[in-house]
């Protein structure tokens, strides 16, 4: 059976270009489904799913949408409707890849629609704004979207746009041909998610090695705000059977406004899914607040938290870590307890009393054991009684602590079977 490629386009203004891309994809043996997301007028070529259908699925009326001058109001209706339509196609087995093209507006809308699809479905966005750093992060966010920089605006068919669309067609056809669809656990080896970052590298590697020897498949996520948020979404997708949340730093970064903020729902997905999770306070001992120029400019984060008066670790001008305070750790403990208390599955919290990262061990730049000690009592006071909190006389990056994390997770997984 031929595979299906969904093409998202505003056919009132990009009909010629969409038609050309459609022909290129079909010439490679794929079926196409053309979805019209336009809000301005009638399509230049006939779609397979009309803008009327998209608007209706989003709870709107296409005539009212076309009559409106408030694009900020009507565009979300079309995005919502298109999300529903592509999810419906996926459920019917009629979506093996998705592609779109355009400038800032269409890229924002199209990538918003692509985000409704699960990890593993090929997603290709051809955009003239792909190289703009502030935009690119928003377009991709936590999703496996491939961005192709068109360089030129896709407006009309000429030598340059033809070359771009030909390569784009080849790209999405190649990805769809190689893809087996949404990623699903194959069942031969339990999947374990683990968060890690530079200041917990040794512990993370020890855990991964130990778990691999025990027959688990380990998927690491860089806890820089995006990677750990992506982990949460994949847990919701049902990919994992257990979690070692070695670096839940995104929680305190979100609380204080740091660079690694991971959104308001960090540390919630595993509990919602009911899978075993082991957690440490790694990363709560610091706040990512670089670049250093923010200090000289009187940045609000630096002034409001008086970061210049704290212990600071500065490996370079961009990566700056400020020591967190006892009061901030107590607030983080309260927030963590609120997130963990509704958990449907088993939870254990392990605290290494000789240092939560390489920065807070004895002799390191952010060493403040008396500050660290403020966290545990606040956590125990508010945490559900059946959630175990263990304090170990170890450094986080010691082999012994990694062994404790793995043993705790494996014990809970065996009990939950």
Explain how this protein is built:
This protein has 417 residues and is α/β, with parallel strands linked by helices. It folds into 2 domains: 4-178, Rossmann fold; 191-416, Rossmann fold, CATH 3.40.50. It has helices at 15-27, 51-57, 62-67, 71-91, 104-114, 133-140, 159-178, 201-213, 227-236, 250-256, 269-273, 293-296, 300-304, 326-340, 369-372, 375-382, 399-416; strands at 4-9, 31-36, 97-102, 123-127, 146-149, 191-196, 217-222, 242-245, 277-279, 286-288, 312-313, 321-323, 347-352, 388-392. The chain has a 6-stranded parallel β-sheet with strand order 7-6-8-9-13-14, with helices on both faces. It has a 5-stranded parallel β-sheet with strand order 2-1-3-4-5, with helices on both faces. Strands 10-12-11 form a 3-stranded antiparallel β-sheet. It is elongated and about 70 Å long. The mean pLDDT is 95.
> Which class of the largest domain in CATH terms?
Alpha Beta
Instruction: Give the N-to-C terminal Cα separation.
Output: 39 Å
CATH topology of the largest domain: Rossmann fold
Oligomeric state of the chains in view? single chain
Mean pLDDT: 95
The helix tally amounts to: 17
Beta strand %: 15-25%
Rg of Cα set = 24 Å
Give the number of DSSP strands.
14
Which percent range fits the helix content? 40-55%
Low-confidence spans: pLDDT under 50, at least 5 residues?
none
Overall 3D shape:
elongated
CATH H-level homologous superfamily name of the largest domain: Uncharacterised protein family UPF0261, NC domain
Order of strands, main sheet, comes to 7-6-8-9-13-14
Structural domain tally? 2
Q: Which structural class should the secondary elements be placed in?
A: alpha/beta
CATH architecture of the largest domain: 3-Layer(aba) Sandwich
| Biggest sheet details | 6 strands, parallel
